[in-house]
Amino acid sequence: MKATHQENQSLVLIVDDEAFNRQQLRLLLEQSGYRVAQAKDGTEAINVFQQLRPELVLLDTILPDMKGFECCAKLLSIDSTKYTSVLMITELEDTELIERVFLAGAMDYVTKPINWQVLRQRVRRLIEQSQLHQKLLAANEKLQRLATLVTIDFLTQVANRRRFEEYIDQKWRRMAREQQPLSLILLDVDFFKSYNDTYGHQAGDRALREIAKAIKDVVQRPADLVARYGGEEFALVLPNTGALGATGVAQRISFAIQRLAIPHIDSQVSSHVTLSAGLATIIPEPGSNFDEIIAAADKALYQAKAAGRDCFKHNNRLMDMKCNMRASVSQILMAG
């Protein structure tokens, strides 16, 4: 029988305490084009399995150091990302024994004395099944990577506008059901066009990457989302976050950007890159649209720019913040 290249790449592990049985099985498998590894007991089988990760294990139910069923379960628990079929070899064919075979995780069985033609066909089928499963796993991983790429901004490696809109829609609906606050912060890099004109677009890209990383380092909660909203604009979605919490996040981001100290000689408010920010906090009404909070945060951002930039404003329907990003939370509250 002429072996295919695919079969030549397949490794079968034989686990049997009888050397004669292992020899017969090895000859059959090698004649069929498979590579073969051997183990004489369960402990050795586990060690060999961990080193070689075969596509198929031929496992006798009777081993000197542990039951074949126990060995089968241990083998299949070693690596959930690697699909391996187990074909068990049993002395008898009774209902209780066969049930134990499948409960242990084996995919099939053969009984002694072995019908070699039956064994050959079952080995081929299980090898093909194992290879197909591995291809499906690889394809699924590729799809997941592609799905991630579709939702990530290539330059800054934060969520892109598409992901932002999907996420804020989800959280808006959830906060409406739970009647909890949702906060949104829109951030804009001050005088970024003049920065690009002075330092060049490559420097501008580097600055955006540094700013995005600084924002991500501040926003640590898994439920919060940092996204690139547009050219030099970023957006933060903060579920279950009130006005005071959103204010604290905006302040910490301001301090983080100050620490970056990115030079900006053409800025009209500072010798370094700064941000303006608009905050909005809303408890959504059921059936309403998230456009409401975007409009509120955008209005607050416009107010921050009109007030001189390098500052933030909270939507004045909820609270009107002092335009000083370096102020402490207590100072902001005292200013009322």
Secondary structure elements and pairings:
Elements: H1 5-8, E1 11-15, H2 19-31, E2 35-39, H3 42-52, E3 56-60, H4 68-76, E4 85-90, H5 95-103, E5 108-111, H6 116-151, H7 161-178, E6 182-189, H8 192-199, H9 201-218, E7 225-230, E8 233-239, H10 243-260, E9 275-282, H11 291-306, E10 312-314, H12 329-335
Parallel strand pairs: 1-2, 1-3, 3-4, 4-5, 9-10
Antiparallel strand pairs: 6-8, 6-9, 7-8
Helix pairs in contact: 3-4, 8-9, 9-10
Structural class comes to alpha/beta
Q: In this structure, how is the largest beta sheet organized?
A: 5 strands, parallel
Task: Give the spatial strand order of the biggest sheet.
Answer: 2-1-3-4-5
**Radius of gyration, rounded?**
32 Å
In DSSP terms (H or I, runs of 4 or more residues), the helix count works out at 12
Beta-strand percentage range: 15-25%
Average pLDDT number: 86
The helicity comes to: 40-55%
Give the overall silhouette: elongated
List low-confidence stretches: 1-7, 316-336
Tell me how many strands there are: 10
Oligomerization state of this entry?
single chain
